[in-house]
Each structure stands twice: as structure tokens, then as C-alpha cells.
Design brief:
The protein has about 475 residues and is mostly helical. The protein has two domains: about 15-50 and about 155-470, Alpha-Beta Barrel (TIM Barrel); about 50-155, Orthogonal Bundle (uronate isomerase, domain 2, chain A), CATH 1.10.2020.10. The protein is built from 20 helices and nine strands. The chain has a four-stranded parallel β-sheet, with helices on one face. A three-stranded parallel β-sheet has the order 1-2-3. The longest helix has 22 residues, at about 280-300. The radius of gyration is 23 Å and the shape is globular.
């Protein structure tokens, strides 16, 4: 007998009845607000082509590294999940068998946010009332496949059903943004914008760096063999991205280090980097200088700058060699911010034209470093709990550690940062429930009036992200 799939209406709300009642009122106020997703990694071609998703595996397993990293941790090869490798990028897989493999091992996700997101998708999007396990795997696969073939499950229809007001994707400066152009030229009113992610062009240790810089020259028509030409070409691409709707840049550097070198030092460093003979420390210095250069460009063009440091990317060398980037092998690292950001903040931290949003995977830095920085510098705001901490307890820890020093209004609301399109409303719902639970505790403690908490709940769910990303 299959187990029922039940989403309790009070999930994540406080257990004390009086506090739960407050949280219910707050959540009711924000539950149906539009979703703004200002930073993520969904595929813009979905919305450009508006073609039916293939099946449950292609939609819910293969794009989601949260899913396959857990399965891999239990000894299930990525090849068994149908992921393509460097040698076989178009690997053919039996997607029904992949889905059965997920179903057989779905118990592994107990206690994880992935379980909560997926169950919400199953129940709210596809209408399942029985839980996923090996006995219901085929029922799930067939029903999801049948529904995905219907017009109201096409990407644009789901976008509208999810009440998404705006969704941002993330692209390399080398991307021609053809799918965003197709969306803009279509008769669809959904708003899908891009974000400028220059890592392949500012990180000397990024694979193919020299070739990437050469390609930048080809695209822009600006020679990139000099420091000034290289910067000019990056400015040109930023302007192109801005013309296509981008309001933000995003930087996935391993650390938060910044530098403020003079032109002569920058020129010498650039020449060494382009020669391919720079050391690891020189590569780090170059990345650090480029954060400051990107900040200077943000002052010029008004785009909001996001820094996502603190991930040791592609930690599993064997997987990286076989499958490439983004295979679930990125690991959080200890990250320092006070000294690291000082060169950049010395130049731009007090400039009203500059907006910097800082994220972290090192939660120990919240109360010690990031909250005090955000509580002082006008240009700096705190991004929400991110990636490994995009979870109910991660969200609770974030509010507990930063609010008393930085307040609520030096944070920027929530962003889902996901490749898994159907999880977007589920992720935003978790964030809204957790914020309402946190605010309800403060109302019950008489630290806030309930009318203030109502305003805050709306701000945290909708208004702060709109303001922070200039949307």
C-alpha cells in the first residue's frame, strides 16, 4: 500500500499555538505575492522555445546537482543517472530506469531541503497524493510524462502559473544571448533577464582562459592583448548585457579578496597572466584586482554586483576530468571578508552609485564580519543563506546571526539560485514560511508589533529584492 503524500499546512511554522497563530496570519499575507527570482541558473532556451519538457528525469534529476550529489554519495555512479561525460556528452540513458533509481533511493533525502522541494513539486504541480518510492516510480514517471505533454505544462504556462514576476538567468560574457533575444522578440509578456557572470574571463585558472580572452576580442572587435583593451572589451560586453535587461553581475570567486593596484602593476600582472606563466598566488591577485575593476564598472553602468565566494569548486578531480564542472563536488571553505574586501570598500564602499551584495558559504562569518560590514557600509548588503545553507535551519541561523547587527533592511530578500525550474515556488515558499516563523517569534517576545511584522514579511518576500536588484 503506497504511503500518502501529505504537505501539512503548518509546516515550518512554530509549534507553540499562540506563536503559530501569528505566523499563520503573517504567512497568509505574503503567500500569494509574486515571485521575483533575481539570480538563478535555469535555461533561457526553455522560455524561448516553449517546448514540452521531455520527462521527469530530464526535468527533475539531470539538471539538479542537489539530487545527484546525494545519490553519488551513496555509491551510485553519475553515468547510471544519465549524465553525459567529456568523452560522451550526449550519453543515451533509459530515463525510466534513472527515475526508478531515484525512487528506490528517495529515502536518502529525508531531512534535506531537496526532499521538501521535491515533495512540494509532486503535490502542488503534479497533484500526487501518494509518496514516491519504488512501488510508485512508474506511476510517477508516466503521469508526469503525460502532464508535461499538455499545454498548461509548457515552460511559459508554468512560469505564469507560478506567479513569477521576473526570473534572471546567468550567462558568460561570451554568450550571444540569442535565447533572451528570442524571448524579447516574442509576443510573450513573461520577464526573463540575464546576469553577467565573467568568471571565464577574469579567472586565470578557469579552463580555457586564454582562448576565452581571445574569443572576447573576436566578439567585441576590441583587441584584448593589452590591459586597457581587455577592460574596454569587458565594458562593451557589460553594456550589451545591460541592453538585454541585465541589472546585475555575479562573481563566483574562490575567495573574497580584492586589490587596488596601480595601472603599471595591473599591466605587468595582466601580461604575466596572458603569458600562461603566472603562479597560483598571482592568479589570486589578478582575480582580486578584477573584483575591484568590476566594482568600478558597476559605478559607471549602475549594475548591482554580487560576490559568491567560498566554494572549493570541482573538488573531486576524477569527476571533473570525466564529467566537467557542476557535478555536485563543490565544497564550502573558510572565507575571510573584513581584510579581503577593504581595498574595494576603500574605493567604493561609501559611493551612493555602487551596490554590492555579498553571499557566504562560511556561516561563522555572519555575526563576526558580514553583519557588521553591512551594518556600516552604505554600498554593501547581505545576500540570503545560499547553496548548502538554503534550508530551513540555514535560513533561521541567518536571521538569528545577522539581524541584531545589520537589521532587516541591509539584507536583500530571497533568491533561489536554482537550475531546477519547478522548484522555484517551493523554495520561495520555504523562505516565506521561515521568515514568518522568525517574525512571529519576535512578535510573541514583544520585540515587534504585529503590524510591523506584516510590513517586514512583505518586504522580505518581495520589496527588498525588487529594490536591491533595481527591478
Amino acid at each position: 500500500m503506497p504511503k500518502p503524500l501529505i504537505l501539512h499546512p503548518d509546516r515550518l511554522l512554530p509549534t507553540t499555538q499562540s506563536t503559530r497563530d501569528i505566523a499563520r496570519r503573517l504567512y497568509k499575507h505574503v503567500k500569494h505575492l509574486p515571485i521575483i527570482s533575481p539570480h538563478g541558473h535555469t535555461d533561457p532556451s526553455w522560455f524561448a522555445h516553449n517546448e514540452a519538457f521531455v520527462d521527469a528525469t530530464e526535468l527533475l534529476v539531470k539538471p539538479d546537482h542537489y539530487v545527484f550529489r546525494m545519490l553519488y554519495s551513496q555509491g551510485i555512479p553519475l553515468s547510471a543517472l544519465g549524465l553525459g561525460s567529456a568523452k560522451n556528452p550526449e550519453r543515451q540513458s533509459d530515463n525510466r530506469e534513472v527515475w526508478r533509481l531515484l525512487a528506490q533511493n528517495y529515502y536518502l533525502f529525508r531531512g534535506t531541503p531537496s526532499r521538501m522541494w521535491l515533495d512540494t513539486v509532486f503535490h502542488e504541480v503534479f497533484g500526487f497524493e501518494v509518496a514516491l518510492d519504488e512501488t510508485t516510480a512508474d506511476h510517477y514517471f508516466d503521469r508526469i510524462g503525460e502532464q508535461l505533454s499538455q499545454s498548461d505544462y509548457l515552460p511559459r504556462a508554468l512560469f505564469e502559473r507560478f506567479n513569477i514576476e521576473l526570473l534572471a538567468t546567468t550567462e558568460s560574457p561570451l554568450d550571444d544571448l540569442k535565447y533572451h533575444r528570442q524571448i524579447l522578440d516574442s509576443d510573450w509578456n513573461g520577464k526573463v533577464i540575464t546576469a553577467f557572470r565573467p568568471d571565464p574571463l577574469v579567472d586565470p585558472e578557469f579552463e580555457g582562459f586564454s582562448q576565452n580572452v581571445a574569443e572576447l576580442a573576436e566578439i567585441t572587435g576590441i583587441p584584448t592583448n593589452t590591459w586597457t583593451g581587455y577592460l574596454a572589451a569587458l565594458r562593451e560586453r557589460r553594456e550589451f548585457f545591460k541592453s538585454m535587461g541585465a541589472t546585475s553581475t555575479d562573481h563566483g570567486h574562490p575567495t573574497a579578496n580584492t586589490q587596488d593596484l596601480n595601472v603599471e602593476q595591473c599591466t605587468d600582472l595582466f601580461n604575466k597572466v596572458m603569458s600562461g606563466r603566472c603562479s597560483a598566488s598571482e592568479a589570486e591577485t589578478f582575480r582580486a584586482q578584477m573584483l575591484t575593476e568590476m566594482a568600478a564598472m558597476s559605478v559607471e553602468d549602475g549594475m548591482v554586483m554580487q560576490i559568491h565566494p567560498g566554494s572549493f569548486r570541482n573538488h573531486n578531480s576524477q569527476l571533473f576530468a570525466e564529467f566537467g564542472r557542476d557535478c555536485g563536488a563543490d565544497i564550502p571553505t573558510k572565507t575571510e571578508y573584513v581584510k579581503a574586501l577593504k581595498p574595494l570598500l576603500d574605493r567604493f564602499g561609501n559611493d551612493s552609485r555602487f551596490s554590492l551584495i555579498v553571499f557566504t558559504l562560511d556561516e561563522t562569518s555572519y555575526s563576526r564580519e558580514l553583519a557588521p560590514l553591512a551594518g556600516h557600509y552604505p554600498a554593501l548588503k547581505l545576500g540570503p543563506s545560499w547553496w548548502f545553507h538554503d534550508s530551513p535551519e540555514g535560513m533561521r541561523r541567518f536571521r538569528q546571526q545577522v539581524t541584531e547587527t545589520a537589521g532587516f533592511y541591509n539584507t536583500v530578500g530571497f533568491n533561489d539560485d536554482t537550475r531546477a525550474f519547478l522548484s522555484i515556488p517551493a523554495r520561495h515558499d520555504v523562505a516565506r514560511r521561515m521568515d514568518c516563523a522568525f517574525l512571529a517569534e519576535w512578535v510573541a517576545d514583544h520585540r515587534l508589533q504585529e503590524d510591523e511584522a506584516m510590513e517586514l514579511a512583505e518586504d522580505l518576500s518581495y520589496k527588498l529584492v525588487q529594490r536591491a536588484y533595481k527591478l
